[in-house]
Amino acid sequence: MISKNYIYSLLTITILAISIVACGGSETTPPTIPAQEEVLEEEPQPEVSNEEADEKVADGMRTFVILPDESSASYLVDEEFFEDALGKLGINAGNNDVVGSTQAIAGQFQVNPNDITNAIGENSFTVDMRTLKTDQEQRDNYILDRGPAFNSFPEATFSATELSGLTGNYVEGEEVQFQLSGILTVHKVPVPVTFEVTATLEGDTLTGVAETRLLMSSFDIEPPDFARTLTVADEFGILVEFTAKET
């Protein structure tokens, strides 16, 4: 027979077990985590691209296209004739200044009159060398197929890379002088050159003169030299007289 003390002990153990299980199985409320304040990062400023910088530099840039009918490109060279020139060429012995010109010139100038010291735009021109004419048809025919052989090398091109010698803002109608440097290609030979330029801007018209002196030999052209007849100097000049209209 089971004693009462045993029954009481068993009940006590059972109650303790239930209490422990109840406490262990109860849900615990997770600790409250304080909300973190949102950190606003400063947005980086957009970088200015090279293209955007170029556009800013180009503000105020104006384009003037050369008018061939009102422009010309010329070469100037010294010839010396000897005693046989009269019989062969019908020319008396002596020195002769030769000018060969053409109006077959195309190109443009880009300038910023508001800041003439700023970077230049596209300044270039092309000349059809086959159309150069002097006072002697025989000379003109010679340079087409012999010497510089312009029938085989018909184009001369100039592309500017630097403008110098100007300061401040331009006053419309004022004549200015400056240097225009770049690459001149004749006979398919590129040579660095600098033109001395005098120009005037009035309204939508840009007029001026550009001059330089070079050597034929720099372009792999051998100056003509015919014994007892004539010689041609290696040094020659280039003269460009231009009128250009704004587009």
SSE layout and pairing:
Elements: H1 4-25, H2 50-57, E1 62-66, E2 72-81, H3 85-89, E3 94-102, E4 105-111, E5 124-128, H4 137-145, E6 155-164, E7 175-186, E8 189-202, E9 205-215, E10 225-226, E11 230-246
Antiparallel strand pairs: 1-4, 1-11, 2-3, 2-11, 4-5, 5-6, 6-7, 7-8, 8-9, 9-11, 10-11
Textual characterization of the structure:
The structure is a single chain. Helix content is 18%, strand content 41%. By secondary structure, the chain is α+β, with helices and mostly antiparallel strands. Strands 1-4-5-6-7-8-9-11 form an eight-stranded antiparallel β-barrel. Strand 8 (189-202) and strand 9 (205-215) form a beta hairpin. The longest helix has 22 residues, at 4-25.
